[in-house]
Structure prediction request, 418 residues.
Amino acid sequence: MIELLLYRAAGQSPLATALLWVLFAIVIIGLVLLVIWQKKAGEKLKFELGQLSKVKKNNVQNEFVLKALHIASWHMNVATQQITYDYDFRERNNDWVADSNDFDDKDGGLALLHEQDAVHVAKTMEDICSGRTENYHVTYRVHIPGTDKMYWEESYATVAERGVDGLPTVIVGTSKRIDDRKNMEQALVEARNRAEESDRLKSAFLANMSHEIRTPLNAIVGFTSVIPDIEDKNERQELLNLIQENTQKLLRIINDVVNISKVESGKEAPVINTFDLTIVLQQVIDEFVPKIADGVQLTTQYAAQPQMITTDMGRLKEVMTHLVSNAVKFTSQGTITVGFDLPPAEKHINIWVKDTGKGISKEHIERVFERFFKVDEFIPGAGLGLSISRTMAESVGGSVTCVSTLGEGSTFTCQLPL
Prediction:
């Protein structure tokens, strides 16, 4: 083209030649500008491709992180209240997790939440959507449809975009199931409670045992020291009887502590055999006949005689010994009745001890089965008997319950499988 212009300019007038040279200069400048523009466009395209590659790489990395952490990411259009899940990698514990479609909008998601949690979550979302807060962090329980089960979930959210008025238009957030963490928290709370209870029981044990053990020991040591100075045979025998009585008390306290420790540690397995229940009950009753107060009658009421039962005879005898002992302690007049009944439609037997003693108030009925708890601090005892009774019964698949009216008496029932 340049040669053509020069050839034409040679045969033209000076004005035409000047115009041709101007045109030539414009073409050259256009070509230079085109080259420059193409270079910049190429650099821009290269930059955009690089950015696109970075975005793609970041998306892959973000997806990998979300998947590894079992997190769902979402965003919500504040104006329409529509929620869109970008990724959902939540664990399917219990073979179920709320589908993303269940949370298409805020109201639909709130409907799946536990009633107590839904109120708090709705308030928190309202705060961030209205611009009162910049972000939120909530934990809540989600109902599993068709069951009475729930799972725990935790969500974080923040404002991603704002309108010209400064109010939020888009909220982004993440959600994650946290059942394992909640179970661990619950286990830690229970462990702490057990530790506190253990510390309380230790203190109660020391307080009660120091008194209960010291009392018979003082009697034993005191009476033993004066026996050599007693010449009267009858008086000496009375002291020996008192020493024997306090020795039995001390032995009973130690046996109680040892027995409950063995059962709870699981080191002593039940010895199951079949025997006549009436014979065992009579042995327990015979032990307490000399100990009942004047004006109290100890009777029996059996549904059948004999009555065979299959369980640990030693533990049953221990249970009934404590129940009868408790009735003897708190009954100063009236009757103490030991009996059993056998409902024909059920495969268990109810053995009970009914007394007309002091009775127990409603707020104390369950507490009497706690270790070292004593309704009346002035009545001798370590507060272990009823606790041991329940523990022994439960160790062979049974239970011990109480029905009582203050001032009228109590009925303790031991229910055992046949």
Summary: The longest strand covers residues 150-162.
